[in-house]
Amino acid sequence: MVDVHAEVLNEESGLDGKYHFLGKLVWFISVGDNIGLEMTGALLTGFTLFSLVVGCESEPTHAGPERKGDSNGQYPLVHLTSHSAFQLVNDSLSFSRADYFCRGQFSFLVTMDQTNDQEEALELLRQTGLRSPIWIKDPSRVTSKPVALSKQYVPFSALSFPKESREGFVHVNILFPALSSVSVCVRVQWDSEWNEVSTIFSYAAPVFTNEFQLRGQVDMQGRILLALIIHGKHLPYKASFPNDGAWHHICVTWQRSNSHWAIYVDGDKKDTGTGTDTSRDIYGNGILILGQDQDSFGGNFTEPFFGNITDLNVWNTSLETRHVLALNACSPMTQEILFSWNLDLLRCHPLVKEIQALLFCPAGHQQMELQGCRTLQGWTDQLPLLGRTDCSDLLPFICRNSRERYLKMKQMRESQGSLPTAFMSQLMKLSNKSQPVLGQQSSGLSSLTQASALLEVSAQALEDTHQQGLQPADMVSLIQLLSLAADIPSQPVDHVSNQSQDSVQELSQHFISVADGIISEDNALKWQAIKEVVNGPMDVVKSIDRMVTSLSPRLMTENDHLTFHSPNIKLEVQQQRLQEGSRGSSFCGPETQEHTSLDCISVPHEKIQDLHNNGFHRLTLVNTWYGSLRPLFNPEENITMVPTVTDGSQRYLGTVLGSSVISTTVLGDDQPVSTAVRFQLQHKVQNPTGTMYDPVCAFWDFDLIPEAGGWWNTKGCEVVSKQYGYTVCYCNHTTNFALLLQVYETQRTPENEKALQVLTFIGCGVSLCGLLFTFILFIAVGVPKSDRTTVHKNLIVALGIAELLLMCSDWASENEAACFLVTVLLHLFFMASFSWMLVEGLLLWSKVVSVNISEDHRMKLYYIIGWGLPVLIVGVTLAISADKYKADDHCWLNVKTDTIWAFVGPVIFVLAVNAVVLCRVVMVTVSSARRRAKMLSPSSASKMQTFDLTWAVTRPVLILLPILGLTWLCGVLVHLSVVVAYVFIALNSFQGLYVFLVYAVYNSEVRNAIKRIKEKRKALSFTNCSQPTSFLPSQRVPITSWGHSPPSPSSPETSETSGPTSSTSTSLVIKNESFRKESFVSFSLKPASGNQVVQLTGFKPSGC
Q1: Which keywords are on file for this protein (predicted)?
Q2: Which residues contact 36 (CB under 8 A, 6 or more apart)?
Q3: 15-19, 245-249, 354-358, 615-619: which range is least confident on average?
Q4: Which of the residue ranges 30-34, 156-160, 166-170, 973-977 would you say has the lowest mean pLDDT?
């Protein structure tokens, strides 16, 4: 055992301070039609209703401490450990109802995937001596979400029985053994014009004719009723399906061991019973005939079937519900099969014709039920024995809760028992007044009626005690009542009378009234008081969803539209037959006093048409609006979400619920389906000064954090448009939706934002002029062609176009198409700018660091990087996320999606590479400066070292930082201060000016080219004035280097002059032997000032 402090508790019975809420409620509700409610007086009525709402007990039955069990053998035991409470509920329920029961007690079905759960559950079973299987939870399965149910066309070969003759039949040519169990499944399409008794199939043995037969007839309401004949006993017509001309799947099962039989229609068990002859098997060596009865062995046909039949299968076993569901979903089942549909094994009457049928099959329908539900069969050697069984079987189960929650509930129960609240007192009073109504109920009434009466009295008590309000214990009890009432087994649609339909409507209205009282804003503080017990207000929402989904087929038998109103809840149920051109659906919450935009949700008509195209015939839409949930969520509990990427102008503070909650549940042929919806919600939160909100479309996911009752999720939802006061969203599924508002503290004032915008515009204008002048100079003055100048030109073009587009982006934002085009071009040319900055870094690396790199085809690689890579990135981004490419309110990439990483990712890579290049260049420069300082003046090297080395480091950084784009590193810090934002804009919007200064004004090649032009003009003018024409020089005047080292004639890149120098200047050019001839570092030393200047040939600024 893990916990030595574990103990087993038996709750006391009686009236002395402990009222068994669930024990009584399950007695009235959970058992359903098998028991009745007997009221013998006002005192008993008062006690019952009082205990129903006060009890908060954790078990549906109870036993006194002196008994091992009550008359039904039920053991209500709670096993406490240091962290958990395990409670055995020995009242057999189906798996789904057992799961809901535990959730109604704010606990969970026990699992066997954790060692602690195994040990404690087995210990509880040992102490009770219970050896029968129990339900356990499979944590890998998620069952609360509606499946994406669709119907698919599946072709079948079918047989048609025409009305032209009553003689058509089909003989199944197989030999049948004696059968102790049998299942027969078939798909039929009934002739809607035939109203007489028909035989779908009949099996006759040589010694007994009416051995096993399925018959049908049309009732007064136009439905087809089915009945079985077993061993000659005709069972009643009860199971039914509509005579709508559609295909229906019918299965019948029988087993001798317990004389149990069942009829399934379209996967649902429509009729079942016992009491057939169990003294013998079904005789063997018989004949199975389709479409006719057999008044004699193999003949005397008198009750023909008219319509179509296909997919007949016979098994020598009794199928479980999950197997029938699988067959209904067109899934094969070959286990113990006697006959599988095969036309070659059939002998048909000449009138019966083979046809081709396309059937709709519910693919993926109820996957959990198809595979069965998990059970604990027992244990051996401390190990659990796990298995699976039909989910509809009735088994006991164990609920697991936290110790703190269980003890808190027990504390509430005891305090409530000692001093009833105002609500409880009024409930007792109303129970006495309602005696005449309740007294008319007999033991034959359904649990649906009883639950309606209980909810009605509770709703009245809530209204009467509105001024006093609810206490925490009252709320816990009422939440439990709603959870159990939502799971009431009700009559099939086939047996719903006008009276029972009225009961369903009354129950729904009372249910909404009670739920409304619980989620009232007045109870906000009470919700905080019970948060240790109840997960939150979404538990009430889930109960409403379950109730309406369960009861909607009964609600809509005679109505196509129903609405239930309360101050905080509006519920609407719509139903329509699906056909070509089916209209869309819309639902809005109540109008507000301010007459602002409404909270609305709709299912687009094309999605409803898709349901029709996928084979659904009837659509039910359950729409609900909750107006008071937002104040009930603890404002101190921040909703954890990843903040939206911003430009640094705001600081993320947190996320809050900012709207009402609205939901749509879509039922296709009474099965939950998921489809896309569009909804609009008002913003319920005002913007305080200095903050702003960014809406996020979200939904409540009950499976996200199950132990907390769920959490907000944004998967599949996106913002369509944001307007002042409301937001429009689109989600690709159905559930409960709301707006989450991400709260940001505004870092910059409107004045700062305006100033930054003006500075950006001015800077881009100045940069554009600088880039334009630089490009003209490169073309006009005849700068020698080289890889370096080519790279410079491409960078200038890319950066210039990008800044021009940036200046025009505000004007383009008014037109959606133009704005999208500008966004694409901005992305392309800014990516090209950074790509050419990367090329600048690679070129500098090849000139200064790795000079042995081959130059062959180098420019081709540079062009691929500079232009090819940006085109590839932009193209792939558009192909992947064109719908999320552009931001909503300006012409740039959407920073709220992953699209922004198509720009940020490559930029970070370029900056990282160029930062490495710059560091390596600085290291080379410093190393060279030290060597030259020692060569010039070994004795004074130490005196010059500090200042000269500082300048040797600073100068290349100042020159190269903007050229390599490293000033963009400031962008990651703009959120820290508005000062950093000014610095960032100043450095980057004026980047073109830096390029002009470095590449043009301080570029010795440009200056030398201009000087040559001036000298040529001067020489030409002098020759024209004073010399004969033949005296003109035939070549350029040679340029002498300061270091008296002429440049290599084979490399125009090394041609430079540094201009005149003073008489005190000494110049050296020392070539690195490992460099290429054109790759050298030139230094200008000024002994008079002690300064040492490092000049990089990669950019060739002058020495001035």
Answers
A1: Disulfide bond, Membrane, Transmembrane, Transmembrane helix
A2: 442, 443, 444, 445
A3: 15-19
A4: 30-34
- Whether 187 and 311 have beta carbons less than 8 Å apart is answered as yes
pLDDT in tens, 752-774: 777 777 777 887 888 888 888 88
- The DSSP code for 640 is P
* Residue 149 pLDDT > 60: no
Structure tokens at 927: 């190393």
Domain boundaries, the chain: 7-141+385-489, 150-363, 541-746, 751-1001
How far is it, in rounded angstroms, from Cα 253 to Cα 820? 64
At the second CATH level, the architecture of 751-1001 is Up-down Bundle (1.20)
Q: Three-class SS of residue 122?
A: helix
Distance CA 521, CA 627 (A): 9
Distance CA(687)–CA(912), nearest Å, equals: 40
Q: Looking at 645-659, 857-871, 885-899, 990-1004, which range is the least confident one?
A: 645-659
**C-alpha to C-alpha distance for 1071 and 80, rounded to whole angstroms:** 86
CA-CA distance, 880 to 722, in Å (whole number)? 24
List the one residue out of 108, 101, 98 whose CA is nearest residue 139.
Answer: 108
CATH number among 2.60.120.200, 1.10.510.10, 3.40.50.300, 2.60.40.4070, domain 150-363: 2.60.120.200
Instruction: Determine how β-strand 1081-1086 pairs with β-strand 1091-1096.
Output: antiparallel
The amino acid occupying position 38 is E
d(CA 726, CA 736): 17
Looking at per-residue confidence, does 65 or 56 come out higher?
56
Pairing of strands 661-668, 618-626: antiparallel
Contact 928, 1081 (CB under 8 A): yes
Determine the Cα–Cα distance for residues 605 and 592; give it in Å rounded to an integer: 27
Q: Give the residues across from 703 on adjacent strands.
A: none
pLDDT in tens, 939-950: 555 555 566 666
Tokens of 871: 């085109």
Token pair for residue 29?
Answer: 């509700």
Which of these, 152, 234, 83, lies nearest to 616 by C-alpha position?
A: 152
